[in-house]
Amino acid sequence: MKQNFTVRQGALDGVEVFLSVAQHRSFRKAAAALGVTPSAVSQTVRVLEARIGAALFIRTTRSVGLTEAGEQFLARAKPAFEELVAASEVARGLGQRPAGLLRLSVPRAVIPILLEPLIVSFCRAYPEVEVELAASKEVIDLAAEGFDAAVRLGHLVAPDMVAVPLTPPFRLVVVGSPAYFAERSLPRHPNDLRQHACLRWRRTDGALALWSFIDNDNDSDQAIEIAVAGPLIANDYASMLGAAMEGLGLAQLPEPLAAVGLRLGELVEVLEPYAPVRPGVYLCYPGRRQILPKLRAFIDHVKSRTAGDRQGPRTS
Questions:
Q1: What letter does residue 87 receive in the DSSP assignment?
Q2: What are phi and psi of 37, to 5 degrees?
Q3: Tens digits of per-residue pLDDT, 274-307?
Q4: In whole angstroms, what is the distance from residue 152 CA to residue 285 CA?
Q5: pLDDT higher for 26 or 236?
Q6: Cβ distance 99 to 128 under 8 Å?
Q7: How far apart are CA 13 and CA 9, in angstroms?
Q8: What is the CATH number of domain 100-168+280-311?
Q9: Smallest Cα–Cα separation from 227: which of 244, 248, 211, 207?
């Protein structure tokens, strides 16, 4: 049988007034300190005593003292009230300036490529904010797990999330090392991959991901998927990138992750005309709650940095 529960009302009503009277040993002085009338103070104390069920003060025409119940109540209520006030000040501070712990759920692969320079510059700009990066391949519930925001690929951003772009749309590129291609011919069509060693990615649901391409032969731009085979299965892009650079096989990766290797000549791109485009990487956060200053500062920092990247290198 379902039980009925009620929230106790007014548990703290009158406590601040009681503490002021106990401090000043005067209803009049307590009223002046609180900015209310002496009669209001007296009435509040009477209501508090009635709710507790014991007299808290001994009143005479010349003085105010504490009863034994009042002394016991003061001994416990004063530190508890002071702690409550301090807690309110801490919470108010977090609501007024960028400070506290900013927890971000991120894919492991984007940390060195996209996040490290961004996080370093943010920490320098906001020294009162501590940033915690939790690398995970799972799409977690941010509110339930206590995260402020997440970094996700565009197609993984839920409709009820606010998304701020970290990168423009990017291609999925097929890459291999020069050493790998020294012993094999370059694939000219996605079907040629059946004769190549391909590094595969296992999804979080346990399935092996197919390689995606655009059907460029018929000018239809329709998506096609191909099952590949090879010597390595991994569940993160960083492992696949490293294996490809070592010459173990071909890998299909987000272009930003392969950009450095391609620029340095450590990787070679193939099947370029068939490369599909993905929406990009986003910083996302729940849109139906107040944004604390720490997250607002990070969002603004992301926007300023990505705007600068779109405009090209800055000159001093």
A1: H
A2: -85, 155
A3: 999 988 888 998 876 678 889 999 999 988 877 6
A4: 10
A5: 26
A6: yes
A7: 9
A8: 3.40.190.10
A9: 211
- CATH number for the segment(s) 15-95: 1.10.10.10
Nearest partner of 233 among 279, 198, 186, 181, judged by Cα: 198
Residue boundaries of the structural domains of the chain: 15-95, 100-168+280-311, 170-278
Return phi, psi of residue 221, to 5°.
55, 25
The pair of structure tokens assigned to 76 is: 């416990």
Quote the DSSP letter at residue 208. Answer: B
The predicted model gives 181-202 an average pLDDT of 93
What are the phi and psi torsion angles at 183 (to 5°)?
A: -110, 0
Contact by Cβ (8 Å): 45, 18: yes
Q: Per-residue pLDDT tens for 217-245?
A: 776 678 899 999 999 999 888 889 999 99
3-class secondary structure, 44: helix
Q: Phi and psi of 82, rounded to 5°?
A: -65, -40
* Residue in 224, 11, 254 with CA at minimum distance from that of residue 155: 254
For the chain, the straight-line distance linking the first and the last C-alpha, in angstroms and rounded, comes to 72
What Cα–Cα distance (Å) separates residue 248 from each residue in 53, 253, 269? 80, 15, 15
Of residues 249, 157, 141, the one with CA closest to residue 201 = 249
Q: Which stretch of DSSP H or E encloses residue 75?
A: helix 68-96
Q: Is the dihedral of CA 285, 291, 297, 299 positive or negative?
A: positive
* CATH architecture entry for 170-278: 3-Layer(aba) Sandwich (3.40)
Strand pairing class (200-201; 233-234): parallel
User: For the CA atoms of 67, 68, 69, 72, what is the dihedral angle to 10 degrees?
Assistant: 120
**Structure-block tokens of residue 21:** 């009277």
Task: Please check whether the two domains, 100-168+280-311 and 170-278, share a CATH topology.
Answer: yes
Q: Mean of the pLDDT values across residues 5-12? A: 47
Q: Compute the distance between CA of residue 52 and CA of residue 40 in angstroms, rounded to an integer.
A: 18
Of 174, 148, 135, 192, which Cα lies nearest the Cα of 268? 174
